[in-house]
Specification:
It is a single chain. This protein is mainly α. The chain is 64% helix and 3% strand. It has eleven helices and two strands; from the N terminus they run E-E-H-H-H-H-H-H-H-H-H-H-H. Strand 1 and strand 2 form a beta hairpin. The structure holds fe (ii) ion. Fe (ii) ion (FE2) binds next to helix 2.
Amino acid sequence: MEQKNEAGAIITQKMIDELRVRIKPYLTDKRYAHTISVEKEAAALGEIYMPERVVELRAAALLHDIAKKLTYENQLNLIAEFGIINDTIKEIAPAAIHAVTAPIIIKRDFPEFATSDILSAVRYHTTGRAGMTKFDAIIYLADYIEPTRDKDVCIQTRRLFYEKLKSAGDEKERVVILRETILSVLRSTLAYLTSKKVKIEPDTEAAVRYFSRGGDFT
Ligand SMILES: [Fe+2]
């Protein structure tokens, strides 16, 4: 099975198999196990929502935490080096900065996977965004509900999501369930960050507003 990226190049299953090995030095063992679990979850969600994009979803999942092992300082340096440091970057919480630097690393070290869909899903996997795509949403949700996540809220979200899906009659209903689940994850993330008095990303707030006003995937 192979799928074309926007440049017309082909992302093959063989490239995915190799990617699984290539990402290893970038991740701790624990993060690697999580990443492989996100890949499986994203593929399962992809089979339900966009079977023609499963290979690309696997690539996005494998690359989503690629910058996670770097220190905050290293990441700021990386950003400075690529000339995109600005006020928005300074607003980003240290725990979320890896979503900004991952696209830089993908373009530098894994350019054959640097499609706009993969870069966007990786960039917004911690915050979501207003007008996020179904592709973005699958990576966002897979990261949150993959089975090695042991927080109650993740386990509950996973259980509820798959339970609701069972009663969905058609594609339209399945998409509604995805949208509702994304909104509920965004809201609980917002509540969690507020309770911890941690900086809240404007993208997360914008995403909550967008979906709570009935916004759809773009
Ligand atoms: Fe992750």
